[in-house]
Amino acid sequence: MLHYEKIGDPERSEEDGMAALRLGIVGAGFVAHFHVRALMQMRGFEVAGIVSPHRAGRLAEVVRQNGLGEGRVFSSLGEMAHQVDVIALFAPNYLRVEMVEALVDAVRQGAALKGVICEKPLARNLKEARRLVELIESVGLRNAYFENQIFMKPIQAQRLQLAPLQEQMGPLSLVRSAEEHGGPHEAWFWDPTRQGGGVLSDMGCHSIAAGWYCLTPVGKPAMFLQPVSVMADCALLKWGRPEWRERLLRDRGVDYARTPAEDFATGMVTFRNPETGQLVKAQFTNS
């Protein structure tokens, strides 16, 4: 049984005479629990629904124990779409297109959804990502892509400290970002056919986003800098060795001898400032 300690006691939106935003969560695993923990610091919403073939009841219990809402478990995404305002997709990557198709169908059938949130990475590949955007835009849903690292306190604090210097010396021209950990927490995330790749997709999306964000001049929108070129080097190092491949097959049921994925990636993204023409670079390394 999980119980997270609340941080503070935020006022509920009902006290302000406003209806709480009803959030529906798809998925009940590692990421969903982290988001629920973060929601304890928020107000103006309730977790009104959960859809997941596994562990939905466990997440619903955490939601109710911490006063975050009813946490009603629905049998399908389509059913839940008619009972919530926003749907957050925290389920595996290989199900993204199927899930968005279901919620778009629900909207076309009358569900009054206001928006959809998608956990990183957006999709397994560019084709699927474009399909997701196309589907969501076809019914006019507001949408959000969840990338957490640009909001980390060290990054925010450093941007604030450097802001006066940028006013005097100009915007940053080079940012280096890196991240490393022991590997995914779920078996499907090790499988490149279901995840969409390896560490470049899983962790590289964080480092590239952080680099892009930090290079963006103060006061400019997030998409201000224009990417003009990308170079990268990927490799299968540790998990390509026989002893580690055997361990992965034994513990996770994933065979890297048949379907390998990179466990190391490094590269450089070059951006152009559309106002000055200045080129700036974001270097990333992940393993």
From TrEMBL:
Record InterPro entries: Gfo/Idh/MocA-like_OxRdtase_N, Gfo/Idh/MocA_oxidoreduct, GFO_IDH_MocA-like_dom, NAD(P)-bd_dom_sf
Domain GFO/IDH/MocA-like oxidoreductase: 168-279
Annotated transmembrane regions: none
Swiss-Prot/TrEMBL keywords: Oxidoreductase
Matches recorded under Gene3D superfamilies: Dihydrodipicolinate Reductase, domain 2, NAD(P)-binding Rossmann-like Domain
MF GO annotations: nucleotide binding; oxidoreductase activity
Domain Gfo/Idh/MocA-like oxidoreductase N-terminal positions: 21-141
Alphabetized Pfam families for the sequence: GFO_IDH_MocA, GFO_IDH_MocA_C3
Record-stated family: Belongs to the Gfo/Idh/MocA family.
Identification of the protein by name: Gfo/Idh/MocA family oxidoreductase
